[in-house]
Please model this.
Amino acid sequence: MFKRIIVMLAVVLVSLSACSAAGPKHYSVKVVKEYPHDTGAYTQGLFFHDGRLYESTGEWGRSSFRIVDLESGKIQRRLDFDSKYFGEGSVILDGRMFMLTWTNRVAFIYDAATLEYQRTCAYPREGWGLTTDGKSLIASDGSSFLYFMDTSFKVQRKLKVTMEDRPVRFLNELEWIDGRIWANVYTTDMIVIINPSSGKVEGVIDCSGLLPAKSRKPNTDVLNGIAVLGKRVFVTGKNWPKLFEIELIAK
Model:
């Protein structure tokens, strides 16, 4: 009987170890450097392409797409959208810039080199975040699903995102970093790192306290915006005065 109990305990310990190993890693963040950010930018999309920083912003009557100088925060080029559109995520793929809208059910396509308008396309669901793995467009819609699409927005694959077997909802702005999808979780200070094959959350980044209370104004909104330049990772938020270059610290 004693030997049997020892064997059972060993099985339980192995199972617990496997569960622990399967759980997400947890991180806090260290600020490497701060950069100015336009407090009028309700950030929806943020990314670097060929070394240049691009940002799409939302809100009715204020939606825009910008090329921004990282060091100064100054807008170098800006496209403004009609007040009936609420801008969302954006990305460049195959020489074109794609920008989603929230509830308008349309997406805009521009020439990436010139930002010359090409066309407006029907989009089948709410637009939230947008990124690319270099082959597909990857979009969120505020649910626990991510959509891998071709450049005509045809869905190639639908991925359910889970953390410890539970769906993770409110996936928002996205970034492809080192073969993983990073996603802001809307209304929180949390970023999740997602395996693009399984949909499992492999990492959770706690960004609470990143923007000090003294830097917050009445219109300061939530964390939103992830961009990568080489090995450097940048984050910001909606109407934040700062864009932060960060490093992850394992908890």
In short: The longest helix spans residues 2-22. DSSP finds one helix and 22 strands in the chain. Confidence is low (pLDDT under 50) at residues 1-20. The chain has one domain: 24-250.
